[in-house]
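Encode chain A's predicted structure.
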Amino acid sequence: MIDKKNFVNNVEFDDKNRICNLYDKMLLSNKIGNTVFTDEFYPPNVWRRLEELRECIPVNIFSNGIFEEAERRIIAFSPQEVWHYPLELIKIINKSPFKSLTHREYLGSIMSLGIRRDKFGDLIVKDDICYLPLQDELKEYVIANLKNIGNCPCDVKIVDIYNEDIPQYNFQDLNIISTSNRIDCVLSGITNLSRSKALELISSGKVLMDYLPIKDKDKIVKEKSIITIRGFGKYKFVDKSGLTGSGRQRLLFKKFI
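Encoded structure for chain A:
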């Protein structure tokens, strides 16, 4: 079995204390022979990496964020299959007929209730409804306290995930041509900026890959990597789709919309 030091070093995440906590939960699950859930949601660079370490871990690793392609998920350590997770899906309904609300406005209002970002999952906004997975212990608090998004009144209801339709992400295909899948080249292709301007985005802290700040312009963008560029949006790298006549790479991304 992998030891704690190697476990922590094998998971790229800015808060190493939280990774230590994951290791402790893994040991607890193995000791008691039962399922142990995380209290927080984790991005794909954590749960996906843990899935890759399965051979070194004494229990099974599962993750769930309710949505089919959820990025932020809670993690379960368990000796058996996990069928039920301590999650609820709520929908926040904008009651204002005069204003449409953005993802950012919903996010800001939820966090203004004093709820940390790691306590809830991805937000999907469809028309005048925002869908939000969160720890089930928080549902009553949100229902009782979230009355407005900005100046817009809202209703909060629980979604029956077993009998109601669960929304999915909307994506827009984006094909770019790049000399390589190095992050500075990819940024230039996505934003239509020069390489020097792309490097300025990196140096100013406006670029995240798999939810971590990019500091190295030589970082390679791998399949399924999520790139967030402040001011431009969020993109998932799908795969290489061929070469141009001059030998440059065709790269397919999906933009979250």
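The CA atoms of residues 67 and 168 lie 7 Å apart.
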